[in-house]
């Protein structure tokens, strides 16, 4: 009897022995894969998926992780790296161009923009991966992942669960710019009003900084006005009714801010109107009549001995100067825009004309005076 049969072995043909060996190898491969999978499950990280920080301020981001202790010699340190995810994941130990923003590894180069601002807190060997960011900048916004390394076999990147940093910027300035016909412009403010002439087109553009970008709206004298675009306000064929204070209001999730600009419209004098006060004389008794307004072209009747005081007023910008004349007759000397006719006689009858003038033009108004006998 063969030795292996005497010992209780079963003799197999060579081909069957080969198949049995391959089957055992496959089983071992599956078992090893399962062991590695169980090891991967020991790598976990607890960190907020997203944090928000205001530009210029600081934020503390608590973080804890676990790792497979069998991959690390007991006397060895764990080196932790926070890395900003660019177009692909990189690892400092494999790529010298891959620079973390924060690490506990002495003499390790970090991103220049993050130097002295990103700090890794605590002891990574205790599973502490907390991150502290100071003087936050807009360019800090993005996705970050944690990488840990240690001897002999500890190399792991937490790329499944990453940290997203959002940097906000409250609205700091709102500026209104007037654009001229050539496309250029200059900032306007309450101390620098927009001055234009009647009939022109005025284009105002509002800009505001902030993160997220603010939405813009326009108001006039604190009343909402419609504009085809948020940023641009266009006033076509501008007139006196368009003059006033315009506000641009900027809003985002973290606040609002507005600025004001005054629009001044210059125009020639409108047709003057006359404010009159008539004093009646009845013998030796004087009685003052009521004050009334006469439009241009009016008829005014008085009795002999009465007195008239007339003021010529013309709407204009800049303010107009006025002058009086009597058509085909002598005029009692007026005082600025005031005309005084005392102790009226029939010789004072006639047409009186007031002319208002400014740098943009002139306007005229008149009234006809009739004087009756007692």
TrEMBL record:
Gene3D superfamilies: Immunoglobulins
Localization per record: Membrane
GO CC list: plasma membrane
Protein family: Belongs to the immunoglobulin superfamily. SIGLEC (sialic acid binding Ig-like lectin) family.
PROSITE patterns, A to Z: IG_LIKE (PS50835)
Coiled-coil ranges per UniProt: none
Domain spans labelled Ig-like: 187-264, 295-372
Matches recorded under InterPro entries: Ig-like_dom (IPR007110), Ig-like_dom_sf (IPR036179), Ig-like_fold (IPR013783), Ig_sub (IPR003599), Ig_sub2 (IPR003598), Ig_V-set (IPR013106), SIGLEC (IPR051036)
SMART domains: IG, IGc2
Source species: Thamnophis sirtalis
Protein origin, superkingdom: Eukaryota
Membrane topology: Single-pass type I membrane protein
GN (gene name): LOC106538302
Biological process annotations from GO: cell adhesion
GO molecular function, one term: sialic acid binding
Principal subcellular localisation of the protein: membrane
Protein name (database record): Sialic acid-binding Ig-like lectin 10
Keywords: Cell adhesion, Disulfide bond, Immunoglobulin domain, Lectin, Membrane, Transmembrane, Transmembrane helix
């Amino acid at each position: 009897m063969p030795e292996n049969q005497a010992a209780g072995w079963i003799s197999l043909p060579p081909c069957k022995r080969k198949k049995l060996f391959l089957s055992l190898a496959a089983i071992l491969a599956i078992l090893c894969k399962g062991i590695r999978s169980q090891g991967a499950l020991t790598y976990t990280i607890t960190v907020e998926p997203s944090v928000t920080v205001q530009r210029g301020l600081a934020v503390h981001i608590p973080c804890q992780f676990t790792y497979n202790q069998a991959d690390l010699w007991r006397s060895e340190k764990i080196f932790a790296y926070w890395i900003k995810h660019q177009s692909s994941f990189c690892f400092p130990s494999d790529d010298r161009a891959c620079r973390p923003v924060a690490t506990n590894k002495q003499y390790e180069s970090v991103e220049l923009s993050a130097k002295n601002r990103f700090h890794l807190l605590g002891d990574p060997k205790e599973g502490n991966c907390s991150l502290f960011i100071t003087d936050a900048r807009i360019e800090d916004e993005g996705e970050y992942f944690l990488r840990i390394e240690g001897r002999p076999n500890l190399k792991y990147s937490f790329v499944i669960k990453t940290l997203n940093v959002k940097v906000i910027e409250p609205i700091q300035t709102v500026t209104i710019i007037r654009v001229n016909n050539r496309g250029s412009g200059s900032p306007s403010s309450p101390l620098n009003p927009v001055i234009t002439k009647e009939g022109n087109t005025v284009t105002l553009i509002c800009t505001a900084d902030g993160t997220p970008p603010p939405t813009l709206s326009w108001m006039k004298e604190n009343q909402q006005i419609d504009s085809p675009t948020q940023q641009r306000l266009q006033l076509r064929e501008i007139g006196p009714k368009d003059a006033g204070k315009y506000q641009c209001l900027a809003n985002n999730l973290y606040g609002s801010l507005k600025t004001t600009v005054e629009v001044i419209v210059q125009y020639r004098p409108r047709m003057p109107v006359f404010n009159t006060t008539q004093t009646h004389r009845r013998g030796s008794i004087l009685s003052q009549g009521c004050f009334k307004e006469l439009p241009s072209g009016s008829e005014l009747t008085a009795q002999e001995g009465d007195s008239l005081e007339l003021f010529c007023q013309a709407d204009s910008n800049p303010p107009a100067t006025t002058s009086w004349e009597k058509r085909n007759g002598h005029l009692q000397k007026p005082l600025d825009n005031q005309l005084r006719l005392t102790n009226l006689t029939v010789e004072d009858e006639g047409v009186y004309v007031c002319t208002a003038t400014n740098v943009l033009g002139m306007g005229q108004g008149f009234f006809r005076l009739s004087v009756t006998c007692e």
